[in-house]
């Protein structure tokens, strides 16, 4: 089996029975804020895109690059489709010209032509990707690969059942806006960022230890930020609170916990994998490349500046009545929302500026009033969350009829945020579901989730607790760590006060726990 690195979470897997291209991403994503690093735009995509199979793990735009898929990926390729509850991934791929789809069943092994075996594990909670994330397992001639990309399964048991995995590809770096965009003192932002960075690595070590693959490949991050207003998010300033460590940092941290089987793939790197060996060639020495990281980034920034400028020129639509358009779009969804509206539990405010981000002058303030089920002008009341961003970005979301503001505005980091109280997952879940289909699915999922009675317990130190985390049902016998009276679920870093059962990370999600006598 031959594995070619093609950047970020993307790779091409070649076997004697066929080739699979995974998650090709080249063009900037999220309002031109994210770019792949190292740069992969100069690869021979005409050749790389001539494949038998295409696998797109989910709809996040650093995995689903519509422009690149349309231009470079063979439409003769058969799409290996995860079993998602909505048809959006298939629908968008069909719009790009793909016509051949192999619809997999989650956790089921499928044998394709020539003895090539694949299995896709689909994750389908409202907080998994843009309603859906997945991992791809591949086997041919006794060699097995797990491309976990940035999916976060509760455990890897199903993959272990299928035999020893020879190559494990997984995320290790950040892919979110927290804590950088929050309006916090620098010291607090650094402290929260360090906690986030440490949790990312802890989760990665746990997955690696669970699977015990022969070789580990750090992928799916980090992005780089080439716009001047976002440049500070690159991990080149010695900031211990930066949540975007690169592959070279992964290798250093992995060595500290005893890891000796890590392999870095640069764009153009090739690993030839057998049941017993992994031999890798690189287009340039890996250590030398990352030693010159800032120089590479500065060269990319200069080369991509016209791309960013062109994107920005397309965002302004001043003719749009933002308040009127949001009322028309959001108020019917508020009327139908039960769990998410109750979960948010208060108004959320958007301050819109005259720039492309939070630094400009506020020219309009709009409230999404979840209890009142309406969108209206801000009226000086207290709000649960406040977001500050460019009016042009909201104009563009309305113009393109974007139904997922998480997979566009929020991941762009082109905003600032403040909140009263704890993190509230329902806020972001709702703004991921600005369509009838997504809203109905998410409400149904929360309904089923809330009504499920988790009877099984597990022992953690001096405590008996419910085995499944109230957040997303992670197995606490594997991911739970107790320190005093606080339980931490290491899958997502959520914390619970055991004596009261109260969630310390977010609103709701009470845990059932009892101290052993």
From TrEMBL:
This is Rieske 2Fe-2S domain-containing protein. Residues 465-504 form the Rieske domain. The lineage of its organism: Bacteria, Bacillati, Actinomycetota, Actinomycetes, Micromonosporales. Coiled coil: none annotated. It holds the Pfam family SCP2_Rv3818. InterPro entries: RibonucZ/Hydroxyglut_hydro (IPR036866), Rieske_2Fe-2S (IPR017941), Rieske_2Fe-2S_sf (IPR036922), SCP2_Rv3818 (IPR057330). It comes from the Bacteria. It comes from Paractinoplanes pyxinae. Keywords: 2Fe-2S, Iron, Iron-sulfur, Metal-binding.
